Amino acid sequence: MEFMYLGTGASEGYPALFCQCERCSMAMELGGKNIRARTGALINSDLLLDFSPDMYMNKLRYKLDLGKVNHLIVTHSHTDHFAAAELMMRHEHWYCQLQESGKKLHIYGNETVEETMKSALRYDYGTDTIEDPFYEFHIIQPFMPFTLGEVTVTALPAHHKPDEHSFIYLLEQNNTRFLYGNDSGIFSDETFNYLRDKHLDVVSLDCNYGLEDRYDYHMGISGCRIVRERLLDQNSCDASTSFILTHFSHYSAELHDTLVKNTEEENFIISYDGMKVFLA
Ligand SMILES: [Zn+2]
Ligand SMILES: [Zn+2]
Ligand SMILES: [Zn+2]
């Protein structure tokens, strides 16, 4: 599996869209790994995990061929994860060439995500039942694995947006497992229990609050430590498991190098935009 972090910032981006704070100014000045677009990932070039408002810039900066993407799995409906208005560009009205096999995009998510998609359609087309739809929506249920290309995907309940079924995702390919764990605070018992005795090769965690001791609907480093301890205790990981932190907010999270310095002794890896993880 090839997993690429397209964005590693919180909903407002880092530097934040309208912010003049010192951190945002420093991030602008230093650039590089301090620049964090809204979160999401590309897996094996044909599977997208979330669709952020920065997807067009992602296409440009990473030279992505998004026409290859047939499947999109969505964590929840927050606008940094599901920019439905941008997805309207998948309608044939907006392109002149796309391989026949790629014309339909399959979107997997919860009921609120589906309604968000329909609402964007109604805005653009006056109806949400367009002829020859360019997408097909699949409502997903937690704990029910399904296969997309070479990857088996399982949605697990997140501890995040309580008025909808927010998910994190377990991704499996060739006996390797990648747990994509944002947006979420400390996982619920049912999510931990599902993962019991399943060896995870990579665990990617929500570290929105950076080094702060905080964990509600997101986490800081202390929440990430608690999750790691629990996964170790229940035989879901061991010393070989990589722990990667992501979804950083300018409100709480330090600049990239400071995060690295303060977490490397504990073997946490700080993600950055464009970072790739390979699992054989
Ligand atoms: Zn988010
Ligand atoms: Zn700021
Ligand atoms: Zn969110």
CATH superfamily: Ribonuclease Z/Hydroxyacylglutathione hydrolase-like
What top-tier CATH class fits best? Alpha Beta
- The proportion of residues forming helix, as a percent range, comes to 10-25%
With strands numbered from the N-terminus, the spatial order across the biggest sheet is: 6-5-4-3-2-1-14
The CATH architecture classification is 4-Layer Sandwich
Q: Radius of gyration from the CA trace?
A: 18 Å
Average of per-residue pLDDT values: 96
pLDDT < 50 stretches: none
Element-by-element helix/strand order: EHEEHEHEHEEEEEHEHEHEE
Question: So how many helices?
Answer: 7
Task: Estimate what percentage of residues fall within beta strands.
Answer: 15-25%
Oligomer: single chain
Number of separate structural domains: 1
Please give the largest β-sheet. 7 strands, mixed
| Overall geometric form | globular
Number of E strands: 14
> What ligands can be seen in this structure?
zinc ion
Structural class: alpha/beta
GO molecular function, one term: 3'-tRNA processing endoribonuclease activity
Function: Counteracts the endogenous Pycsar antiviral defense system. Phosphodiesterase that enables metal-dependent hydrolysis of host cyclic nucleotide Pycsar defense signals such as cCMP and cUMP.
Domain Metallo-beta-lactamase: 37-247
EC number: 3.1.26.11
